[in-house]
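Example 5.3 — RING-type E3 ubiquitin transferase
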Amino acid sequence: HLLIKREDRDFSPYIAWNITGTYRGTWGTLENNNGSHRFPEFGKSNGYIIFELVSSVTKITGVHYVQGAIFFRGASDNEHDPGVTQLRVEGVYIWPFRQLRMVTNSGPDGGLNQEEDYFLSNPYHLLGLFSSQVFQDSPREQLKRKGKHAFLLDLEKHCNLQIAAQISKIPSDQRDGDRDHYHMEGLVESPALDDEGECFSPILLNASSISMEVYYNKAVNYTLMVTFISFLQVLLLIRQMEHSSTQSGAAKVSLLMIGQQAIMDAYLCLLHLTAGILVESLFNAFATAAFFKFVVFSIFEMRYLLAIWKAGRPNTGEGWETMRRELSILYSRFYGILLGGIIIMYELHSFLRPILLAMYSFWIPQIIFNVIRDTRKPLHPHYILGMTFTRLAIPMYAFGCPSNFMRIEVDKNWCMCLGLFMGFQALVLLLQHYLGSRWFIPRQILPEKYSYYRRFENNINAVDCVICMTSIDVVQRSNECMVTPCDHFFHSGCLQRWMDIKMECPTCRRPLPPV
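Solution (predicted structure tokens):
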């Protein structure tokens, strides 16, 4: 049992501490001999713990009634389900002695009590529950939780869980914000009800209260980061749209690459909007981030998507009805993939990290498109580098920042894999920009390219360039003259400038191969 320090025995002045709040810390077993214990489900010897406590005044002087829940993280050795064991507790807080005593409580089956009302209004609990459902929970784990629920019922049936803790106030120079924060250090014991020894080893608890003010600030700072990133992405998209403003330039950009990024921004918009609706006090911050993501995908990326589709569409002279039908097919495919992706991520929740890696392969369609079409400089280098870094910001914060507000455990290996994967894609694109789109393919297996400086019949004496309307000297056979596959002659500079706008012959409008 815990000893009470001499200074904690001083009852004057009588100041009742309100210990209602959320506490986060660690737990660890004092023994590792699980062989004689009834419940070996606590396979690990340490992990993280979260307390949700609600304290209320009673008629007894110096005694507060406390109820709440305890969440043990990492209680299982199962790799697929590391374990989030929840126990409901109730007890008393004897505030003159700073002593907290609690026992397990299964609680009523129906109705909301004061504790559940607190949970439903606590943004830390709500956002943590939302992020765990989005990033960690899965249908497979929900099936496993049924077995875990049976384990909890068996635990409550055979064990008498007792918690004894000492409450102390954190000094003002060690806490964030102006409100009082408390530290809890205690012991969890589990004597069996049938006198057959302990259910599991005694567990040492060590937790501190969380400043909701700091938590709000973290959430607001995150939304400001998302808003700033969205603004940068708008600038990068404008720069890229100017770089490929001509029909020939837009035709060099992969439709799948832009479409994949638009779907990612649509998902982020829905995710932030849902978080804002879930936590009313943070609605303005999350709604602002969702709005900027909506602007990125619905205005700029969809507009660019349409420009790329029109540039790659053959000019057959068909009417507006045919074009409108093809456009409706394009939009139906886009939103069909968008909704289908939501269903896939819901059904394959446990594979969310590999799915995110697949979503962040959006540069690969452009790399393959460059190799197939042998395109020249389709993307601006600033767009490649800027989009790579801004796209990495949100997943790196969620899975790589230890103090993220989403209560997601840090996964350094996954963050390293994602960073290397994105960096490799960006490096290949930059090398394609400066060295050529097929720089990594051996010349022996490359298909033959059309030569605009090919030989032609000697009986041609003089022709005019229809672009600049001046004569071309074809007798000298210099690099000043280029010949198209349809046997039309142009000045080299004139035709190259023309192909930057349209990949069509200026004379007969036939499609031209890349240079």
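Remark. Residues 236 and 275 are 27 Å apart (CA to CA).
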